[in-house]
Write a structure and sequence with these properties.
CATH class: Mainly Alpha
Number of strands: 2
Structural class: mainly alpha
Strand content: under 5%
Order of helices and strands: HHHHHEEHHHHHHHHHHHH
Low-confidence stretches: none
Mean pLDDT: 88
Number of helices: 17
Number of domains: 1
Radius of gyration: 20 Å
CATH architecture: Orthogonal Bundle
CATH topology: Farnesyl Diphosphate Synthase
Largest sheet: 2 strands, antiparallel
Length: 331
Protein backbone atom coordinates (compact mmCIF):
# COMPACT_ATOMS: atom_id res chain seq x y z
CA UNK A 1 0.00 0.00 0.00
CA UNK A 2 1.18 3.51 -0.84
CA UNK A 3 0.33 6.27 1.63
CA UNK A 4 0.44 10.03 1.26
CA UNK A 5 3.93 10.15 2.77
CA UNK A 6 5.36 7.98 0.01
CA UNK A 7 7.58 10.10 -2.23
CA UNK A 8 6.69 10.42 -5.95
CA UNK A 9 9.81 8.55 -7.07
CA UNK A 10 8.86 5.66 -4.77
CA UNK A 11 5.29 5.70 -6.10
CA UNK A 12 6.59 5.61 -9.66
CA UNK A 13 8.92 2.72 -8.76
CA UNK A 14 5.94 0.81 -7.35
CA UNK A 15 3.79 1.39 -10.44
CA UNK A 16 6.48 0.12 -12.84
CA UNK A 17 7.90 -2.46 -10.42
CA UNK A 18 7.14 -5.55 -12.49
CA UNK A 19 8.45 -3.92 -15.66
CA UNK A 20 11.63 -2.82 -13.87
CA UNK A 21 12.23 -6.41 -12.78
CA UNK A 22 12.24 -7.39 -16.45
CA UNK A 23 14.47 -4.41 -17.30
CA UNK A 24 16.91 -5.56 -14.62
CA UNK A 25 16.95 -9.01 -16.20
CA UNK A 26 17.89 -7.47 -19.54
CA UNK A 27 20.61 -5.41 -17.85
CA UNK A 28 22.08 -8.50 -16.16
CA UNK A 29 22.01 -10.48 -19.40
CA UNK A 30 23.57 -7.76 -21.52
CA UNK A 31 26.32 -6.75 -19.10
CA UNK A 32 27.59 -10.32 -19.01
CA UNK A 33 30.80 -11.22 -20.82
CA UNK A 34 32.31 -14.68 -21.23
CA UNK A 35 35.67 -13.32 -22.33
CA UNK A 36 36.15 -10.43 -19.89
CA UNK A 37 34.77 -11.14 -16.39
CA UNK A 38 35.88 -7.72 -15.22
CA UNK A 39 33.06 -6.17 -17.25
CA UNK A 40 30.21 -7.57 -15.09
CA UNK A 41 32.31 -7.01 -11.96
CA UNK A 42 32.73 -3.28 -12.63
CA UNK A 43 29.19 -2.83 -13.94
CA UNK A 44 27.61 -4.70 -11.04
CA UNK A 45 29.51 -2.56 -8.54
CA UNK A 46 27.97 0.61 -9.92
CA UNK A 47 24.51 -0.69 -10.80
CA UNK A 48 24.09 -2.34 -7.38
CA UNK A 49 25.02 0.88 -5.55
CA UNK A 50 21.38 1.77 -4.99
CA UNK A 51 20.57 4.39 -7.63
CA UNK A 52 16.91 5.28 -8.11
CA UNK A 53 16.87 4.17 -11.78
CA UNK A 54 14.84 7.31 -12.44
CA UNK A 55 15.71 7.57 -16.13
CA UNK A 56 14.57 4.08 -17.18
CA UNK A 57 11.47 4.49 -15.02
CA UNK A 58 10.64 7.65 -16.99
CA UNK A 59 10.77 5.62 -20.23
CA UNK A 60 8.41 3.02 -18.77
CA UNK A 61 6.09 5.71 -17.41
CA UNK A 62 5.92 7.55 -20.75
CA UNK A 63 5.00 4.33 -22.57
CA UNK A 64 2.38 3.53 -19.93
CA UNK A 65 0.75 6.95 -20.39
CA UNK A 66 -0.24 5.87 -23.89
CA UNK A 67 -1.33 2.33 -22.95
CA UNK A 68 1.57 0.56 -24.65
CA UNK A 69 1.11 -3.20 -24.40
CA UNK A 70 4.31 -4.45 -26.04
CA UNK A 71 7.71 -5.12 -24.48
CA UNK A 72 10.13 -3.09 -26.61
CA UNK A 73 10.00 -0.30 -24.03
CA UNK A 74 11.87 -2.66 -21.67
CA UNK A 75 14.84 -2.69 -24.03
CA UNK A 76 14.66 1.08 -24.31
CA UNK A 77 14.65 1.47 -20.53
CA UNK A 78 17.69 -0.82 -20.29
CA UNK A 79 19.34 1.21 -23.05
CA UNK A 80 18.81 4.42 -21.10
CA UNK A 81 20.28 2.87 -17.94
CA UNK A 82 23.31 1.55 -19.84
CA UNK A 83 24.00 4.99 -21.32
CA UNK A 84 23.66 6.56 -17.88
CA UNK A 85 25.95 3.99 -16.24
CA UNK A 86 28.55 4.39 -18.99
CA UNK A 87 28.63 8.15 -18.48
CA UNK A 88 29.03 7.72 -14.71
CA UNK A 89 32.03 5.43 -15.21
CA UNK A 90 33.62 7.94 -17.55
CA UNK A 91 32.73 10.92 -15.33
CA UNK A 92 34.43 9.42 -12.29
CA UNK A 93 37.64 9.00 -14.27
CA UNK A 94 37.52 12.56 -15.62
CA UNK A 95 36.69 14.00 -12.18
CA UNK A 96 39.12 11.67 -10.38
CA UNK A 97 36.25 10.89 -8.01
CA UNK A 98 36.72 8.58 -5.04
CA UNK A 99 33.06 8.08 -4.09
CA UNK A 100 29.83 7.50 -5.97
CA UNK A 101 26.55 7.04 -4.07
CA UNK A 102 28.51 6.73 -0.84
CA UNK A 103 30.69 3.88 -2.12
CA UNK A 104 34.22 3.77 -3.58
CA UNK A 105 34.19 4.45 -7.33
CA UNK A 106 35.03 1.75 -9.86
CA UNK A 107 38.15 3.61 -10.93
CA UNK A 108 39.36 3.55 -7.33
CA UNK A 109 38.61 -0.16 -6.79
CA UNK A 110 39.97 -1.23 -10.17
CA UNK A 111 41.63 1.45 -12.29
CA UNK A 112 40.90 4.21 -14.80
CA UNK A 113 41.51 1.98 -17.79
CA UNK A 114 38.94 -0.56 -16.63
CA UNK A 115 36.36 2.15 -15.98
CA UNK A 116 36.79 3.74 -19.40
CA UNK A 117 36.74 0.46 -21.30
CA UNK A 118 33.77 -0.96 -19.41
CA UNK A 119 31.95 2.32 -20.05
CA UNK A 120 32.69 1.88 -23.75
CA UNK A 121 31.35 -1.67 -23.58
CA UNK A 122 28.09 -0.46 -22.05
CA UNK A 123 27.70 2.19 -24.74
CA UNK A 124 28.13 -0.56 -27.34
CA UNK A 125 25.54 -2.72 -25.60
CA UNK A 126 23.14 0.19 -25.52
CA UNK A 127 23.39 0.61 -29.27
CA UNK A 128 22.75 -3.10 -29.79
CA UNK A 129 19.54 -2.76 -27.81
CA UNK A 130 18.50 0.33 -29.75
CA UNK A 131 18.92 -1.49 -33.06
CA UNK A 132 16.89 -4.47 -31.84
CA UNK A 133 13.88 -2.22 -31.29
CA UNK A 134 13.87 -1.61 -35.05
CA UNK A 135 12.97 2.09 -35.14
CA UNK A 136 15.26 4.51 -36.93
CA UNK A 137 13.50 7.42 -35.23
CA UNK A 138 14.18 6.03 -31.76
CA UNK A 139 17.74 5.13 -32.75
CA UNK A 140 18.23 8.73 -33.88
CA UNK A 141 16.84 10.13 -30.61
CA UNK A 142 19.07 7.98 -28.38
CA UNK A 143 22.16 8.28 -30.59
CA UNK A 144 21.75 12.05 -30.65
CA UNK A 145 21.35 12.10 -26.87
CA UNK A 146 24.56 10.08 -26.46
CA UNK A 147 26.45 12.57 -28.62
CA UNK A 148 24.92 15.52 -26.74
CA UNK A 149 25.93 14.02 -23.38
CA UNK A 150 29.53 13.67 -24.53
CA UNK A 151 29.42 17.21 -25.95
CA UNK A 152 28.17 18.54 -22.61
CA UNK A 153 30.92 16.75 -20.71
CA UNK A 154 33.60 18.15 -23.04
CA UNK A 155 32.14 21.65 -22.70
CA UNK A 156 32.22 21.31 -18.91
CA UNK A 157 35.85 20.23 -19.14
CA UNK A 158 36.78 23.25 -21.26
CA UNK A 159 35.04 25.81 -19.01
CA UNK A 160 36.07 24.16 -15.75
CA UNK A 161 38.29 26.34 -13.55
CA UNK A 162 37.19 29.44 -15.50
CA UNK A 163 35.49 31.94 -13.19
CA UNK A 164 34.27 33.90 -16.23
CA UNK A 165 31.86 31.07 -17.06
CA UNK A 166 28.35 32.56 -17.28
CA UNK A 167 24.89 31.14 -16.64
CA UNK A 168 24.17 30.62 -20.35
CA UNK A 169 27.23 28.39 -20.68
CA UNK A 170 26.30 26.54 -17.49
CA UNK A 171 22.85 25.86 -18.96
CA UNK A 172 24.45 24.43 -22.13
CA UNK A 173 26.59 22.15 -19.97
CA UNK A 174 23.78 20.72 -17.86
CA UNK A 175 21.34 20.48 -20.77
CA UNK A 176 23.96 18.31 -22.41
CA UNK A 177 25.37 16.23 -19.58
CA UNK A 178 22.08 15.63 -17.70
CA UNK A 179 18.90 16.86 -19.38
CA UNK A 180 19.64 15.20 -22.74
CA UNK A 181 19.14 11.72 -21.31
CA UNK A 182 16.04 12.72 -19.32
CA UNK A 183 14.38 14.13 -22.45
CA UNK A 184 15.42 11.16 -24.60
CA UNK A 185 14.11 8.74 -21.95
CA UNK A 186 10.65 10.30 -21.90
CA UNK A 187 10.50 10.91 -25.64
CA UNK A 188 11.33 7.33 -26.70
CA UNK A 189 8.75 6.00 -24.24
CA UNK A 190 6.10 7.97 -26.08
CA UNK A 191 7.48 7.07 -29.51
CA UNK A 192 7.41 3.31 -28.90
CA UNK A 193 3.82 3.63 -27.66
CA UNK A 194 2.72 5.37 -30.86
CA UNK A 195 2.06 8.77 -29.29
CA UNK A 196 1.49 11.73 -31.60
CA UNK A 197 4.27 14.12 -32.60
CA UNK A 198 2.73 16.77 -30.35
CA UNK A 199 2.67 14.39 -27.39
CA UNK A 200 6.27 13.28 -27.99
CA UNK A 201 7.34 16.92 -28.17
CA UNK A 202 5.61 17.56 -24.83
CA UNK A 203 7.38 14.53 -23.32
CA UNK A 204 10.70 15.87 -24.62
CA UNK A 205 9.99 19.28 -23.08
CA UNK A 206 9.06 17.68 -19.76
CA UNK A 207 12.24 15.58 -19.66
CA UNK A 208 14.42 18.52 -20.66
CA UNK A 209 13.03 20.83 -17.97
CA UNK A 210 13.02 18.07 -15.34
CA UNK A 211 16.64 17.20 -16.11
CA UNK A 212 17.75 20.83 -15.86
CA UNK A 213 15.97 21.28 -12.53
CA UNK A 214 17.44 17.98 -11.32
CA UNK A 215 21.02 19.08 -12.08
CA UNK A 216 20.56 22.57 -10.64
CA UNK A 217 19.41 21.01 -7.36
CA UNK A 218 22.23 18.45 -7.54
CA UNK A 219 24.76 21.28 -7.76
CA UNK A 220 23.00 23.07 -4.93
CA UNK A 221 23.15 19.95 -2.75
CA UNK A 222 26.92 20.03 -3.11
CA UNK A 223 26.81 23.37 -1.34
CA UNK A 224 24.26 22.65 1.37
CA UNK A 225 24.21 18.83 1.46
CA UNK A 226 26.05 16.37 3.65
CA UNK A 227 27.85 13.09 3.11
CA UNK A 228 25.07 11.22 4.90
CA UNK A 229 22.34 12.50 2.58
CA UNK A 230 24.04 12.85 -0.79
CA UNK A 231 26.74 10.19 -0.71
CA UNK A 232 29.46 12.75 -1.27
CA UNK A 233 31.25 15.40 0.74
CA UNK A 234 29.86 18.90 0.74
CA UNK A 235 32.13 21.11 -1.35
CA UNK A 236 33.36 18.45 -3.78
CA UNK A 237 32.67 20.74 -6.75
CA UNK A 238 34.71 23.50 -5.10
CA UNK A 239 37.63 21.16 -4.49
CA UNK A 240 37.39 19.83 -8.05
CA UNK A 241 37.22 23.48 -9.24
CA UNK A 242 33.95 22.99 -11.13
CA UNK A 243 32.25 26.32 -11.79
CA UNK A 244 28.63 25.36 -11.09
CA UNK A 245 25.66 27.69 -10.65
CA UNK A 246 26.21 28.51 -6.93
CA UNK A 247 29.71 29.76 -7.73
CA UNK A 248 28.66 31.55 -10.92
CA UNK A 249 26.03 33.54 -9.03
CA UNK A 250 28.41 34.36 -6.16
CA UNK A 251 31.26 35.35 -8.49
CA UNK A 252 28.94 37.63 -10.47
CA UNK A 253 28.24 39.69 -7.33
CA UNK A 254 31.69 39.47 -5.74
CA UNK A 255 33.86 42.42 -4.76
CA UNK A 256 37.39 42.73 -6.14
CA UNK A 257 38.79 41.12 -3.00
CA UNK A 258 36.34 38.22 -3.31
CA UNK A 259 37.20 37.84 -7.00
CA UNK A 260 40.84 37.41 -6.02
CA UNK A 261 39.73 34.63 -3.68
CA UNK A 262 37.90 32.84 -6.52
CA UNK A 263 40.88 33.28 -8.84
CA UNK A 264 43.22 31.76 -6.27
CA UNK A 265 41.03 28.83 -5.28
CA UNK A 266 39.30 27.91 -8.53
CA UNK A 267 41.47 29.21 -11.37
CA UNK A 268 44.86 28.56 -9.76
CA UNK A 269 43.80 25.67 -7.53
CA UNK A 270 45.61 27.12 -4.52
CA UNK A 271 43.24 25.98 -1.77
CA UNK A 272 43.72 25.99 1.98
CA UNK A 273 41.88 23.94 4.59
CA UNK A 274 39.53 26.79 5.51
CA UNK A 275 38.80 28.00 1.97
CA UNK A 276 35.58 26.02 1.63
CA UNK A 277 34.20 27.77 4.70
CA UNK A 278 35.18 31.11 3.16
CA UNK A 279 33.45 30.18 -0.08
CA UNK A 280 30.30 29.33 1.85
CA UNK A 281 30.37 32.71 3.58
CA UNK A 282 30.54 34.53 0.25
CA UNK A 283 27.65 32.49 -1.12
CA UNK A 284 25.63 33.13 2.04
CA UNK A 285 26.38 36.85 1.78
CA UNK A 286 24.72 37.00 -1.64
CA UNK A 287 21.94 34.51 -0.77
CA UNK A 288 22.72 32.36 -3.80
CA UNK A 289 20.80 29.38 -2.39
CA UNK A 290 17.55 31.32 -2.54
CA UNK A 291 18.27 32.53 -6.08
CA UNK A 292 19.09 29.03 -7.28
CA UNK A 293 15.97 27.50 -5.75
CA UNK A 294 13.86 30.09 -7.58
CA UNK A 295 15.59 29.18 -10.82
CA UNK A 296 14.99 25.48 -10.25
CA UNK A 297 11.34 26.25 -9.50
CA UNK A 298 11.05 27.98 -12.88
CA UNK A 299 12.24 24.83 -14.65
CA UNK A 300 9.89 22.66 -12.60
CA UNK A 301 7.02 24.91 -13.67
CA UNK A 302 8.07 24.42 -17.30
CA UNK A 303 8.11 20.67 -16.82
CA UNK A 304 4.60 20.71 -15.35
CA UNK A 305 3.35 23.00 -18.12
CA UNK A 306 4.58 20.51 -20.72
CA UNK A 307 2.70 17.72 -18.95
CA UNK A 308 -0.56 19.66 -19.22
CA UNK A 309 -0.39 19.15 -22.98
CA UNK A 310 -0.80 15.39 -22.38
CA UNK A 311 -3.95 13.43 -21.48
CA UNK A 312 -4.63 13.45 -17.75
CA UNK A 313 -3.95 10.11 -16.10
CA UNK A 314 -2.52 8.65 -12.92
CA UNK A 315 0.96 8.56 -14.43
CA UNK A 316 0.70 12.11 -15.78
CA UNK A 317 -0.25 13.43 -12.34
CA UNK A 318 2.52 11.41 -10.73
CA UNK A 319 5.11 12.85 -13.14
CA UNK A 320 3.89 16.31 -12.15
CA UNK A 321 4.42 15.42 -8.47
CA UNK A 322 7.84 14.05 -9.37
CA UNK A 323 8.83 17.43 -10.80
CA UNK A 324 7.87 19.12 -7.51
CA UNK A 325 9.78 16.46 -5.57
CA UNK A 326 13.00 17.34 -7.42
CA UNK A 327 13.00 20.64 -5.52
CA UNK A 328 12.88 18.97 -2.10
CA UNK A 329 15.11 15.94 -2.62
CA UNK A 330 18.15 15.57 -0.39
CA UNK A 331 20.08 13.03 -2.50
Amino acid sequence: MLDKKTQPDEKLAKIVELEMLRVNEIIRERMASENAPRIPEVTSHLISAGGKRLRPMLTLAAARMFDYDGDEHLKLAATVEFIHTATLLHDDVVDESLKRRGRPTANLLWDNKSSVLVGDYLFSRSFQLMVEVGSLTILDILASASATIAEGEVLQLTVSKNIKTDEATYLKVIRGKTAALFSAATQVGGKIAGASEEACKALYEYGDALGIAFQIIDDLLDVEGSLQNTGKNSGDDFRERKVTLPFIKAIKKSTNTELEFWKRTIEKGDQNADDWDKALLVMQKYDVVSDIRKEAETWVDRAKLALKKLPESEVQLLLSDLADYVLTRSK
